[in-house]
Amino acid sequence: MTADCLFCRIARKEIPATIVAESEFCLAFRDIKAQAPVHVLVVPREHVGSLNELKDRAILGHMFSLAAQVVHAEGMSERGYRAVINTNDDGGQTVFHLHLHVLGGRRMSWPPG
């Protein structure tokens, strides 16, 4: 973990967040700038700056596994949802700690942006 990283601080529970699920490896919490009725971020507890810096592929498995738990708990598995990882500036990443957006509760448009 990095001392001043926002998501590391949330993972350490130094900054309050509405946590909806957690595991040994990841934490899922509601996005404070929600873009859909359900907008949850899944972050690894270990600091990884972006998908480009990922060295341990198992982290993605842990993230998507926790996302699946969130999807079922939020009742989105049947109607559908979107799971997105933004990477770097052009990809829309604003917090440089790897995170997975889980969005649902409404119809998603395509292309996304």
Please characterize this protein's 3D structure.
This protein has a five-stranded antiparallel β-sheet, covered by helices on one side. The longest helix has 16 residues, at 58-73. A hairpin with a 3-residue loop joins strand 1 and strand 2 (26-30). Helices cover 23% and strands 22% of the residues. The mean pLDDT is 96. The chain is an alpha+beta fold and 113 residues long. It has three helices and five strands.
Could you provide a short overview of the structure?
By secondary structure, the protein is of the alpha+beta class.
How are the secondary structure elements laid out?
Blueprint: H1 6-11, E1 19-22, E2 26-30, E3 38-44, H2 58-73, E4 81-84, H3 88-91, E5 100-104
Antiparallel strand pairs: 1-2, 2-3, 3-5, 4-5
List key phrases describing it.
about 110 residues, alpha+beta, five-stranded antiparallel β-sheet, globular
Instruction: Report the radius of gyration as a whole number of Å.
Output: 13 Å
**What share of the residues lie within helices?**
10-25%
Low-confidence stretches: none
Q: Give the count of helical stretches.
A: 3
Order of secondary-structure elements: HEEEHEHE
Biggest sheet character: 5 strands, antiparallel
Distance between the termini: 31 Å
Estimated share of beta-strand residues: 15-25%
The overall pLDDT, averaged over residues, is 96
Indicate the structural class: alpha+beta
The geometry reads as: globular
Number of strands: 5
User: For the largest beta sheet, what order do the strands appear in spatially?
Assistant: 1-2-3-5-4
